[in-house]
Structure formats: structure tokens, C-alpha cells
Write a structure and sequence with these properties.
With 227 residues, the chain is mostly helical. The chain is built from nine helices and no strands. Keywords: Membrane, Transmembrane, Transmembrane helix.
Length: 227
């Protein structure tokens, strides 16, 4: 993942949004249940600044979303999108668990926070783990990763004479699946052997060779014992 200006902005805004929203939520959890204004009798007045803290939550969420949408890769490939998403949901879920376990919070609120954390953590990990798997595959040269990054398609029988001949012999019953797979990955040394096996298959089809004779000669050919 190259750290371009756009990627840097995505990370900066994403983590800024997480910090802003987290600060607001943390303070609101400390304040707890309260109310202010109105003609009704209020059991507990909200402390000064509560409105400001409550605004930090949606503002932080919006900033986080902007950082997420700035990601060039989105959520389908390893990049800032997956990092921002995972940090927001998994980090937020873990922070909620820590808050619940270490701070005095009303029992009713605790149950709700446990549920939110249980939802947030796997939501974040889903894309985080996906990104790690994609990176590992790319480093190992997994063809599935190369196909996504380069757009190249795997070789097919229609465009590869070697595979075309293998498929033809396989359809004739001249090769077993194991023999097909072995010859498929060794095109350099298999060309002459395939030509001989095709001749043997034609002799068998015409009745010149019995099935036993064909198998014996084919085995010798595969071993490189042909003359």
C-alpha cells in the first residue's frame, strides 16, 4: 500500500474522527443520565458543556466517514479504507468494553454497551482479517491476488497449445487425471511425450494395440524410456 496524499488524508481524517467521536462518547458515558431545561422537575441537571460533548459524537462520525470514502481501495482491497474501518469498529468496540469494565456505569446502560461492543468488534475484524489474508496471498504470489491486481486471466486450453493437446488426450481416455496434472506443469519436457502418447492412443483406437499394451507403452513414455 503506497502512502499517497489521498491515503494520508484518509488515515488522518479517519483517525481524527475516531478520536473526536470517542472523546464525546466517553464524556457522555461519564455524565450518565441527565436532563436540562423545560418546565418539568428534573432529577439530575446536566453539567455545563454537555451539549458540546454530545455534538462531538456525530461530528466525529462524519469526519470518520469522509476519511473512509477518501480511501482509493475502498473496503475490497488492502488499504486505508480497511484500516479506518477496522480501527473505527473494532477499536470502538474494544474501547466500550474497557469503559464498561473499568467505570461505574448504570446497569441498564452496561447491557446496551455490551451488545454494541459485541456487534462492533466482529464488524471491524471482518475487513481487517480480509485485508491481512489478501496481503499474505499477494506476498506469496497467490494467483488469485495477481489476477485481481493485474487483471490477467489464467491460461486456458483455447490459448495454449500444450493445454489443448492435454485436454484432447484426456477426453480420449489416454491420460489419467494424475498424469494430466503432472504433464500440465512440465510443458518443456512433455511435448515429445505427448506426441508419442497421442500416436499410441491412435494405434489403440485402430485396434493395433490392446489396452494393456497401450498402458505399458504409455508408462514407458512417461518415464522417458521411449526411443
Amino acid at each position: 500500500m503506497r502512502l499517497t496524499m489521498r491515503a494520508g488524508a484518509s488515515l488522518l481524517l479517519g483517525f481524527t474522527g475516531i478520536v473526536v467521536a470517542g472523546a464525546g462518547l466517553n464524556r457522555l458515558l461519564d455524565i450518565g443520565t441527565c436532563a436540562s431545561g423545560g418546565p418539568s422537575v428534573i432529577a439530575r441537571q446536566c453539567p455545563e458543556g454537555t451539549t458540546l460533548w454530545s455534538l462531538l459524537l456525530p461530528v466525529g462520525f462524519v469526519i470518520w466517514m469522509v476519511g473512509l470514502f477518501l480511501s482509493e481501495e475502498g473496503l475490497v482491497k488492502p488499504g486505508t479504507g480497511q484500516v479506518v474501518w477496522t480501527a473505527g469498529f473494532t477499536g470502538g468496540g474494544v474501547a466500550l468494553l474497557v469503559k464498561v469494565l473499568t467505570s461505574p456505569i448504570e446497569p441498564g446502560a452496561k447491557a446496551g454497551l455490551y451488545v454494541v461492543a459485541a456487534v462492533f468488534i466482529p464488524m471491524g475484524l471482518a475487513f481487517g482479517v480480509t485485508g491481512i489474508v489478501q496481503l499474505v496471498r499477494a506476498r506469496r504470489g497467490d494467483p488469485r491476488s495477481r489476477g485481481r491486481s493485474t487483471g490477467r486471466k489464467p491460461a486456458t486450453a483455447a490459448g495454449d497449445p500444450h493445454l489443448k493437446r492435454l485436454h484432447r488426450l484426456r477426453s480420449m481416455g489416454a491420460l489419467t487425471r494424475a498424469e494430466f496434472d503432472r504433464l500440465k506443469h512440465d510443458p518443456a519436457t512433455a511435448a515429445d511425450r505427448l506426441a508419442l502418447i497421442q500416436q499410441l492412443a491412435e494405434l489403440k483406437a485402430s485396434g493395433v494395440l490392446t489396452a494393456e499394451e497401450f498402458e505399458a507403452k504409455k508408462l514407458a513414455t512417461l518415464r522417458g524410456e521411449h526411443r
